[in-house]
Amino acid sequence: MTFEDVTAQAGPDLQVQEPYRGAVIGDLFNSGKMDIVVTVLNGKARILRNVTSNANNWVTFQLVGTKGNRMAIGAQLKVTTEDGNSQYDIVSTSAGLAASRDRRPHFGLGPCKAVKQVEVRWPSGVRQGLRDLPADQIHRIVEP
After folding, report:
1. Which residue in 13, 41, 124, 143 could disulfide with 66, CB within 3.0 to 4.6 Å?
2. In the Cβ-directed half-sphere of 59, how many Cα atoms lie within 13 Å?
3. Over the stretch 107-135, which tens digit does the pLDDT of each residue have?
4. How far apart (Å, rounded) are the C-alpha atoms in residues 33 and 37?
5. Is the pTM of the predicted complex or chain greater than 0.70?
6. What is the pLDDT of residue 39?
7. What is the pLDDT of residues 5-47, one digit of tens each?
8. How many Å apart are CA 126 and CA 105, to the nearest integer?
9. How many angstroms separate the CA atoms of 10 and 124, rounded?
10. C-alpha to C-alpha distance for 111 and 108, rounded to whole angstroms
11. How would you write the chain as a 3-class SS string?
12. Alpha carbon distance 34, 76 (integer Å)
């Protein structure tokens, strides 16, 4: 459970020294891999596309609200995997100064090939549960 500096091995794009002002993480190419967009002061934004490969699984949710908040901002998700571990996220676009993030909650599942249960608490107060969703997909959930 430690961090290691791997920027020297990460390629030439991570060697460029610029006055960066923000970083946003999201799955820009719907591949299940989290990409990074960074803003540069007085320069063009840079896209760092994640092209790594591994055997881990993932799941992403596209939530659609029906009770006044169509983007589902503020919806809370709890994802429980086959191994009994749980993860949490809140639908948001907030990412800091002059930046916005992908509002689709994304969960890394490691070796798990399915989500045992998803619990959604919508901003309207409605609670919704789904079971046995396959990994490596973007699932669309509409508020009941």
Report:
1. 143
2. 27
3. 999 999 999 999 999 999 999 999 999 99
4. 13
5. yes
6. 85
7. 888 887 787 787 888 888 888 999 999 999 998 888 888 888 9
8. 18
9. 43
10. 9
11. CCCCCCHHHCCHHHCCCCCEEEEEEECCCCCCCCEEEEEECCCCCEEECCCCCCCCEEEEEEEECCCCCCCCCCCEEEEEECCCCEEEEECCCECCCCCECCCCCEEEEECCCEEEEEEEECCCCCEEEEEEEECCEEEEEECC
12. 20
Phi and psi angles of residue 15, each rounded to the nearest 5 degrees, phi first: -95, -10
Maximum alpha-carbon separation in the chain: 49
In order of their start, the domains of the chain are 7-142 (2.60.40)
Structure tokens at 113: 């090939």
